[in-house]
Amino acid sequence: MFTLSSALKACAGIGLKELGRQLHCNLIKLNVGSDPFVHVGLIDMYSKSGLMNDARMVFNLMPDKDLIAWNAVMSAHSQNGEDMEALLLFPLMHEAGVGFNQTTLSTVLKSVASLQVNYVCKQIHALSAKSGFESDRYVVNSLIDAYGKCALLEDATRIFRECLIVDLVGFTSMITAYSQSGQGEEALKLYLEMLDRGIEPDPYVCSSLLNACANLSAYEQGKQVHVHVLKHGFMYDNFAGNSLVNMYAKCGSIDDAERAFSSIPERGIVSWSAMIGGLAQHGHGKEALRVFNQMLKYGVSPNQITLVSVLCACNHAGLVTEAQKYFRSMKELFGFERMQEHYACMIDLLGRAGRLDEAMELVNTMPFQADGSVWGALLGAARIHKNVEIGQRAAEMLLILEPEKSGTHVLLANIYASVGMWNNVAKMRRLMKDCNVKKEPGVSWIEVKDKIYTFIAGDRSHVRSEEIYAKLDELSERLSKAGYIPKVEFDLHDVERDEKEKLLYHHSEKLAVAFGLIATPAGAPIRVKKNLRVCMDCHTAFKFISKIVSREIILRDINRYHHFKDGSCSCGDYW
DNA sequence: CTAGGGTTAG
């Protein structure tokens, strides 16, 4: 019987469901199936083989359900994504009078984390403290993670800082918590602290760090983490590989992303989706579709996320017919329903292509209540195509749905300005003032030799300000000779044309690029980042500049990457 | 029987 018990454990470890089931049959024949150890072994084996029904059945048929068995079935639910069921077992255990231990708490906290139920998280914390299990490292680490996932950063930090047994898992949870709450810098700092304490990294923490770098678009630091991955031999870890693809794509280096992609040992759906999404984000729409077809050829089934990236690729490549094909027959081709996100992509795509009526039609007929993203897409399209009517309708909805966002006011004002409705522009400004909505100031930054230089519009604080403005003046002359005309309609100020040109000239992204030109060697690519969308005029100007000075300009704005080269942009002006 | 990691438009 001991042999059988170990054999079950082995099956659970590698998910051998057929062999596990055979062992179960033998146990019944031998009539030793009533042993509690065997029951727990069976529950665990079925759970890890993804056979939740069988696991549940074994548990239900158990005559004397002890604490270990309850823990095993709770863990089974949690491992199979049935977190609510796992959570609901906790009060049932209390009723059954079996008590709980550190394993119960740790398991229940895992489900608390994935369900993000803040209130329950605090309760389990209190219970852990009261029962003395708070000193168990599994419980502590689970608490840190659960608080992190519930976005209760302060509580997570407090436990992390106060406990004496913080280890690699605890650090990973905390690093992930910072990264996922947008505090990538903190995450990277914590990693250094971890190394200082002599804790060696593993693939989990590397994966999390790469994600932090991706969110920060921190190319240099991402490369550093990549070095750690190589140094410690984690390059054959699928998760680390996927994170590398994502990191390089989000940091603007699609070549590195492709290299990382081809060295993943088992390219799964996440690897393919990350690659397709990365290519789409960089404007390589056709290439993204090529990779998608390659994936299908390999027999990998796409999921809903893959299709969001595919539609996005069509969007950035202007492939309306292609997108409609995938969108209309998603169910028949791939077997899943269209989600809100797919509709949003499609509406965005139709809108950009100038087919605003069709986009509007889709909004009215889709099986979801249009949310902020849908109205946002329409508003953006209305701005490109100067459609006041649809712009007003979309803005009206957005002001109700997302009143705190400043973008809506600005975009609508943009539309009014573009058609010369200055009275309405003024009204929008007043509305912004009355509602106390502040336009987020545009900030651009550039990294030169390990230092980050930030610029705001009209900035004169930089030590090399004189040179920067001189460079802009020089460029201005060469630009007009090359046929560039400032796109003044994208300026909101009701002032004369030459005054507008001057304002446009001092946009933060132009200052950053000018600085890049004087501070980096000739021919080197210039990598600039902006916290908002790049302005249409700057976009046009950069196309010209890339040709005039024979430099590649790589600009990451809030949505995507623009690669300006030889007078054109990778987004094909389709952003 | 228990803890940490990867892909989603605007």
Can you walk me through this structure?
With about 575 residues, this protein is mostly helical. It contains 31 helices and six strands. It starts with a helix and ends in a 6-residue tail after the last strand. The protein has helices at about 1-15, 15-30, 35-50, 50-60, 65-80, 85-95, 100-115, 120-130, 135-150, 155-160, 170-180, 185-195, 205-215, 220-230, 240-250, 255-260, 270-280, 285-295, 305-315, 320-330, 330-335, 340-350, 355-365, 370-385, 390-400, 405-420, 420-435, 465-480, 495-505, 510-520, 535-550; strands at about 445-450, 450-455, 525-530, 555, 560-565, 570. It has a six-stranded mixed beta sheet with strand order 2-1-3-4-5-6, covered by helices on one side. Helix 1 packs antiparallel against helix 2 (about 15-30). The longest helix has 17 residues, at about 465-480. It has a domain at about 445-570. It binds one DNA strand of 10 nucleotides through helix 3, helix 5, helix 7, helix 9 and helix 11.
Mean pLDDT: 90
Compute the number of strand runs: 6
Question: For the report, how would you describe the main beta sheet?
Answer: 6 strands, mixed
Number of helices: 31
Shape: elongated
Structural class: mainly alpha
First-residue to last-residue Cα separation? 66 Å
Q: Which regions contain 5 or more consecutive residues with pLDDT less than 50? A: none
Side-by-side strand order of the widest sheet: 2-1-3-4-5-6
Radius of gyration from the CA trace? 28 Å
Pfam families: DYW_deaminase (PF14432), E_motif (PF20431), Eplus_motif (PF20430), PPR (PF01535), PPR_2 (PF13041)
Protein name: DYW domain-containing protein
Keywords: Repeat
Domain DYW: 483-575
